[in-house]
């Protein structure tokens, strides 16, 4: 079965995905008042969020290295499952790879850039119009933090999609295996019934002789 041969690759996909979802969930108490709460967000909450993000961005180099290694492990698991792919691999693992790459793009383009912006402490409205290109929008402090929180939500949805696709592949392969075993069982029973009928006919013919 493809599931047995690719079980370790599936492990490499599911574990990093759950690891990243845990990191995003730890940021949810900071993101919830910005995006989902109907009550006005107090100004002190932005201070707490900025202090937390600066602390994360100033973490020792070992921390981002471990994070990037885990990202690479998930990508390696997807590539390994797509080596000599079957039809199910192309459908589920191909879509999982697309979602995973979308997550990496959100991480690099929005989250990393947002962390650098928060650490610098100078937002678009504070920089001024001199450094802006034509058509570029100016985002203040609150809007920049909301964009960063929305990026976390988008990344969480993308990672949940990867888990759903992997679970769907497991279920589809499990159903195929059950149907294959049921078909083999019926074929063996049919062969045994035919063999028993032939043996009875031969015994009857011998009695007549």
From TrEMBL:
InterPro entries reported in the protein's UniProt record: Psh3/Shr3
MF terms in GO: unfolded protein binding
Pfam families: SHR3_chaperone
Biased composition (Basic and acidic residues): 180-194
UniProt superkingdom: Eukaryota
Compositional bias ranges of the Low complexity kind: 197-209
Biological processes per GO annotation: endoplasmic reticulum to Golgi vesicle-mediated transport
GO cellular component: endoplasmic reticulum membrane
UniProt keyword annotation of Membrane present: yes
Protein name stated in the entry: Putative secretory component protein shr3
